[in-house]
Each structure stands twice: as C-alpha cells, then as structure tokens.
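Z., the sequence and structure:
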Amino acid sequence: MASSRRGDSPEPTPPESAGAATALERRERMLRRRGRLRYGTFASFQYRNFRFLWLGQISQALALWMEQIARPLLVLSTLVGGDARDLGLVFAARTVPQLAAGLFAGVIADWYDRRSVLLVAKTGSALANFSLAFLILSGQIELWHIYVQAFVKGMFNAMDQPARQSMIPSIVPPRHLTNAVALNSASMNTMRIVGASVAGLMVAFVGFGMTFLVAAIVFLGAVVFTYMLDVPTHVRSGKRNVGNAFSSFREGIKFGWATPSIRWVIILALVYFMFGMSYMQVFAPLFAKDVLEIGERGFGFMMSLTGLGGVIGGLTLASLNPRRHRGLAIMGVMATFGTMLILFSLSTFTGIVALSLGMVVLIGMFQTPFNSLTNSLLLDSAPVDMRGRVMALISLDRSVITIGATLAGFTAHALGVQFAQLIFAGVVLAGVFVALTLVPAFRRIQ
C-alpha cells in the first residue's frame, strides 16, 4: 500500500518489513491453531511486543501527566512566582527542541535501532525529572531551572515520538494498526485520569518535590519495558554523517509533500496543534485557577475528566478500527473538538462549575481520536524506511504548540482567558471549514 503511493515505482521491501511480517505471521498461525486469534477492541494485545510497548507507554504517560499537572502549578506557585506569560514561555522551552530537531529525530529513528533510541530518550527524561525533584526538595528551585528542565525534556521527547510511533507497524499486522494506535492513545488518557488525580493530590498534600520524585520513579518503568522489547531491526544507511542527515531531512519533506494523504493531514494538524492544544497547556490551568476557582486539586480533577473523555473516545475508535474515510473522519473530529472548546468557554460565564466540568469530558472525547486517526493514516502511508521521518513531520506539527501556547499566554493576559479560548477555538473551526471547501480531495483520503 505504502509503496504504491511513494511515486514512480515500488521499492524492494526492506529486511525489517520481511522480518517483522514473518514474526507476525508465525504469531498469527500459532494463535489460529490454538483458536485464540482475536479481533475487536483489544485485538493488538495478543502480540507480545505490543504489550511491552503499551506497558512502557503506560509508565511514561503516567509520569508525563503528573508532570503536566505539576509543572504549570509550580510555575504559578509562590515558590517561583510565575504568571500566564511564564506558562506559555515554559511550554515553549519544552517544545522548541521539537521544532528545531523534530525531522532530524526522524532521521535518527530511520538510521538507528529504534529500541536503542527509545532507551536513550526515556532514560534521559527520567534523569531530568530526578534533577528537578532534587532542586525542589533542596529548596534551590528557581524559575530558570524549570525552563532548563523543560528544554531538556523536549530534546528527549523529540527523539522518543518518531521512534516509538514508527515501531508500531513492525509489531502488529496492518489491519490492527488503527486499533493499536487508538489503544496507545486510550492508555495516555487513562493515565491522564490517574496522573492528574495523583499529581493534584500530591501537590496539595506533600508538595512539588515529592510529586516530581514519584514521577521520575514511575518513568523508570518505561525504561524497563522498552528494554524487554524484542523487535527486528530495520535497514540503516551505510554512511551516517551531517551531510547525509540533511539529505535525509530533505527526502522526508519531499516525500511528505508529494504524498497527498500525508500533506493534507500535516497541514490540518498544524492548525489543530497550534490553536486547539493550547487548551491543555495554557488555558486549562488558568480556567481552574482564575475563572472556576477550583485550585490545584480542582485542576487535577479537571484533567482527569478530560482523560476520562479521552479513554471513551480512544476505546470507541479502537472498536471501530476504521481503515476507510479517515480524512473525512479527521475533519469531523476536529470540528467537533473546536465546538466543544467554544461551548466550554461559554459555560464558564454561567458560574455553574458542574456544567463546565461536564464539557471537559466532551473535549477529551474528541481530542484523542484526532491524534489516533492522524497517526494511523501517516503510518499507513509510509514505507518502512521512511516511517521515522514521516512521524517526525507530525512531531514537528506538535512542536508548533509552542507558538500557539506562547500566543495563548499573551492573549489570555491581554483579553482574559475566556475570550482568548473562544478566539483560538474559532481558528480551529475555520481551519476545518477551509479544508472542506478548498481541498475536497482531503475528504476522499482513506
């Protein structure tokens, strides 16, 4: 499928593809003989390597969501005395490395053994968390420490995403690809519920230092489960140097632009990540603190509800496991997500906190399917030797959250969080409208 979209003529199948297919075929024959070959919502769990990848994702997601809750609260706390602008800038410090090194991270994922790349990235992230926990517990924490730690985490995260995502087609068969990606997304949102609740309570009762220390310890689980993976290595370029890295970088861009299913997904995702995801990084903590006035524990509960919606959305997508009309589905999900953001912001004018929290669940329900659908479509559109660079393209899109988050922080500071959120959600809807009217081909992308 991927090679037919590649361009002029199909390329020889790389050894990884053959090795991965052989291992998967053996596994399927064994399951079929035993009458245990499964379909449905949890079909991907019958593959050992997916289970380890998923368990590693569970550990990493729990630690990341604890950090996602604790970091903005730490910035706004009396310990460092930050404000809305600092929220945007700290998030910028975390995602600038992805903007600067995103595609090169894809080159690394295509050049080197992806399991080894993941081990380096996850170990580095765990050490960064331990360092921040030490600074807080020792009473030496300053705002610039948070900037540095966020930047370091961003560097390792840039390495992690392309390698992890591009590994999935090697460990599950093509018909389960959307199912596997959706289950990974559902796990992220399950851990959002747990991590947000745990982090909110820990910050309130034991402080920031212990919260980041526990997050660092949890992150070690991701290192252990990644080490346990047994996946076939992929073809590596014989000559690896800076010049070839730039050539590979350009090749990834050319391939993505020349492939319609990749080009239009990337363009639409650019709008989604820049203007839609500012809700998670900037607007949500400001709504909790300044508008709804529910404090740290309330913010953690708010993020848990978003995660609950994400679990519902992710498991629904895993059950449907669509392989057709994904372009149309992506636009529908994105439009509904933007609408939910508008309704949530409007609900906060009523003063009815329960109504606003109910809208948070709906936001999560339509946030997760967007990520899962875009990832599965991109992976399905790329040959094995290009997966890292293709997934780096979507990572590059995610890195523009930096720009959106920075704009969101300054816009909220100038206009207030409610009006700023309405403006950003309106841009999300405008992006879908433009795609529907000016790019009808996008609706036909499978």
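DSSP finds 17 helices and no strands in the chain. Residues 1-19 have pLDDT under 50 and may be disordered.

Let me know what you think.
H.
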